[in-house]
Amino acid sequence: MAFTHTIDGKGETSEKAFDVINPATAQPFAKCPDASRAQLDAAVAAARKAFGPWSRKSFAERRALIAEFAHALAKRIDGIGPVLTQEQGKPLGQAKWEIGGAVHELEAMCNMELGTQLIRNDGKHRVELVYHPLGVVGAITPWNFPIILAAHKIAHGLYAGNTMVLKPSPYTPLATLLMGEAGRDTLPPGVLNIVAGGNDLGGWMTEHPGIDRISFTGSVATGKRVMASASGTLKRVTLELGGNDPAIVLEDANADQIVPSLFRGAFLNAGQICMAVKRVYAPEKLYEPLVAGLTKLALSHRVGNGMEPDVEMGPVQNKMQFDKVMNLIEDTKRHKSVRITAGGHSLNQPGYFIAPTVVADADDGMRLVREEQFGPVLPVLKYKDVDDAVRRANDTRFGLCASVWTEDYERGAEIARRVEAGTVWVNHHVGSEADMPFGGFKESGLGRELGTMGLASYMEPQVVKIPLRSGS
Ligand code: NAP
Questions:
Q1: Whose CA is nearest to atom 9 of ligand 1?
Q2: 426 alpha carbon – ligand 1 mean position (Å)
Q3: pTM above 0.85, yes or no
Q4: Rounded to whole angstroms, how far apart are CA atoms 353 and 351?
Q5: Which residue ranges of the chain lie beneath pLDDT 70?
Q6: Which atom, in ligand 1's list, is nearest to the CA of 197?
């Protein structure tokens, strides 16, 4: 299969190419074209040229074309799914589910509008707030959910009237390049450009004078570099960054009922989700039942190559992340007080496989608790009273998401409001919805995507003050 960039509505290859590694085998399985600086410039120029006509279309016209793009993507699910599994590692069913989710989000996110809003009409003046598209958006995505995260940026970026140059992670570029083919068939040339490349490409984009806004999803450390680089041209920036999500279980929760949801929230996609459960705070009374339930599921979870049937969890996506997670496990083992009740080791086979790991009697000072593990390792911490649990949950520089687990939903909501995080669920963890603004407190990000707040972030607000003739 040949993979090409999408530039100005056409497929293009590059002089250079790099290997894409299958994390289930640790071997290269395909080549990806490596965009040159000139190709990025061409993509930006195409996006600038397309901006005028695209921005003058109505929301309804853009919605219809984005829906055609979504339908073209839906027709490709069976073709793109195996590529996503081979480059990312997730089981094939989950890869197809991710692409299906992207199709759904592309349509659902374009079901809202930002029309002219009346700020005031006091008889002397009418004051209106109108929103304008910004220009060319540079979108940068990570390797854990390349398709759905690209869809979020494409949906509101284009629907708002902007054009786009999108860059996937070099670890998982291929499925996103195939997504570009759906765009070539349905969107006017230059509206959606997708270019893949090595480590220089992201930096070129954040400093590029032809790009007006950066929509970035990735790690906290890179997000800070992106913001610094974008300041040179005062680009608008949203940063969707890492998390260290706490799940606080209250005394009245039903341990048996919540264990499967907690487990899924922590181990889906091998724990490589920004908003995964990364720390569980359990009351003394429920502590052992919760540890036992999570351990049982971890020990029976089927780990393997995502192309094989019945596999529930694939490998960690790349060697660097595998080494980071194994290093956290080794550091955890040095704490003599902890119990590793499941996993705690890699699998003895090629590929970056780590057994689902549950760490009981974890304490607040451990690196596994303080850092974002972004892998299949879950620490469970004990608490005496709920105020203490909330304080410890908030004692972090992260603030992406969190959850509270209880039979008393209103009490759960009260505690949820005390947690410093962009989204807090009661009796649930993981998931984004088109109408729910998503983003982080503290170092988990800047700004929001999704919802009308997300749509507005792709636009520039303008106040228009109009004098009224007396009597009108
Ligand atoms: P990453 O290393 O920060 O990379 C993310 C993207 O940024 C990649 O495309 C990367 O490409 C690019 N990049 C790296 N350095 C750059 C620079 N100086 N300028 C511009 N772009 C640059 O993150 P990752 O390891 O791929 O993803 C995992 C992280 O993403 C986790 O922390 C996770 O929590 C977070 N995440 C957050 C959300 C959210 O919505 N909040 C969602 C998913 C993931 P190159 O490698 O080529 O540089």
A1: 169
A2: 28
A3: yes
A4: 6
A5: 471-472
A6: 47
